[in-house]
């Protein structure tokens, strides 16, 4: 959807007025023209922040309105959550499982790659299985 309305002064939640337009009930700005103090989720992330439960207060659009991103207030943003020790351990366990071949003796772990998801075997075991299949054929 392209912009149908001309630029106008739109009011931001903090009372400031900026040049933009209203789309879907939100103050809207062109890509690269977001007012200061507002940031996309990705920009918050880069600054070590997260929205912290607040909703979007404005948006930017590009590609003639076919792409858009919500803007959050930086003053209401909260520090990015840190995973708990239990969550970090769970991730380690999952990554270890992705490197452990179930058909190798003693659950050998591959170092240079993650096992393919299907079949979950190391390349040596896959090659071995292919050789056996060729002998049987
Ligand atoms: Zn293996």
Overall description:
This protein has 137 residues and is of the alpha+beta class. The chain has two domains: 8-79, no CATH class; 85-136, no CATH class. The chain has helices at residues 41-46, 85-97, 123-136; strands spanning 8-11, 17-23, 26-30, 38-39, 49-50, 58-62, 67-73, 78-79. It has a six-stranded mixed β-sheet with strand order 1-2-3-6-7-4. A two-stranded antiparallel ribbon has the order 5-8. The chain starts with 7 loop residues before the first strand and ends with a helix. The mean pLDDT is 90. Residues 101, 103-104, 108, 121-122, 124-125 line the site of zinc ion (ZN).
Low-confidence stretches: none
Strand content: 15-25%
Q: Domains counted in the coordinates: how many?
A: 2
**Total number of strands:** 8
Output the radius of gyration. Answer: 26 Å
Q: How would you summarize the topology of this molecule?
A:
Layout: E1 8-11, E2 17-23, E3 26-30, E4 38-39, H1 41-46, E5 49-50, E6 58-62, E7 67-73, E8 78-79, H2 85-97, H3 123-136
Parallel strand pairs: 3-6
Antiparallel strand pairs: 1-2, 2-3, 4-7, 5-8, 6-7
This protein binds zinc ion.
How do you describe this structure in short?
The chain is of the alpha+beta class and 137 residues long.
Keywords:
137 residues, alpha+beta, 2 domains, six-stranded mixed sheet, two-stranded antiparallel sheet, 3 helices, binds zinc ion
